[in-house]
Amino acid sequence: MNRIDAAFALLRRRKGKALIAYLTVGFPSVRLLPDLVKALVEEGVDLIELGVPFSDPLADGPMIQAASSLALRKGVTPRLVLKLVAQMRQAGQEVPIALMTYYNPVFRYGLRNFCRDAAASGVDGLIVPDLPPEEAGDLLHAARPVGLDTIFLAAPTSPPERIRRIAKVSNGFIYYVSLTGVTGSRAALPPEISAQVKGIKRMTKRPVCVGFGISRPAQVTEAVRAADGAIIGSALLETIARAKGNPVKAVADFIRPMRRACHG
Fold first, then answer.
1. What is the pLDDT of residues 98-129, one digit of tens each?
2. What is the pLDDT of residues 158-189, one digit of tens each?
3. Dihedral angle of Cα 97, 102, 105, 108, to the nearest 10 degrees
4. Cβ contact 61:182 at 8 Å
5. Residues identified as active-site
6. Domain range for residue 85?
7. Considering its fold, how many domains does the chain have in total?
8. Which residues have a Cβ under 8 Å from the Cβ of 109 and sit 6 or more positions away?
9. Would you say 57 and 68 are in contact if contact means Cβ atoms under 8 Å apart?
10. Cβ 170 vs Cβ 208: under 8 Å
11. 80-100 in b/e burial notation, b at 16+ Cβ within 10 A?
């Protein structure tokens, strides 16, 4: 049982829901990453999703694209991301960490080498949104032996047979995309989220967490009504971008009401 599985097991015993926060590595700076992670964990975040900057994202909206572009200009690479995770682990940071990356950087690195090095660095799971579950065999064979969870995305348009396939190859949790389109804050979430999440949960015992579009406490509450967790990304990066002088405090202040909405 790795850190992701242990976190959800603990939440189940406590009848709690997971709050997951996304950060782009290198935004606003490489130096601030450990402090941002620490602030989020101290405010009750259960899992950290670290975005590996990539030049040609498919699922990312304008805010994450801008953050990734800035990080790339600062020289952030997959190897640097793994080094930073290892440094946080060496400093005692035990929060579960999943990397959100695209397939090309992993393929260029080498699937087995990447999974081996990620696990050795202290990464617990991988999210690769442009890798269909039907074509994920090589990654699964590289990730499973070293204990990395593989987290796949289900969408509102996913038919039942595809949900079953996603559930079969996913571990850690299933990432339910709340809406069609790319990441980014939304004024409202689709009203059918609860029904769709309940449908997925009838097909699997894996936790299901909702992401895309969540930007305010009421949306967190709405997401976890049926799901096992809520994922906040673009809105968190927007908070960092707007912060004047102290992005770490801004992140803590932003996430605090989200935690209350998630955990009660």
1. 999 999 999 999 999 999 999 999 999 999 99
2. 899 999 999 999 999 999 997 654 443 444 56
3. 120
4. yes
5. 49, 60
6. 3-263
7. 1
8. 78, 79, 117
9. yes
10. no
11. bbbebbbebbeeebebbbbbb
C-alpha separations of 137 from 24, 122, 154, 177, 238 in Å: 27, 23, 18, 22, 36
CATH code assigned at 16: 3.20.20.70
Position 59 scores a pLDDT of 61
Quickly count: other Cβ atoms within 10 Å of residue 218's Cβ. Answer: 13
Tokens 């299901």, residue?
208
Q: Which pairs with CB-CB distance under 8 Å and at least 24 residues apart come from 154-161?
A: 154/200, 154/208, 155/180, 156/180, 156/190, 156/192, 156/196, 160/199, 160/203
Tokens 């989020």 belong to which residue?
40
pLDDT at 183: 44
134-158 pLDDT per residue, tens: 999 999 999 999 999 999 999 888 8
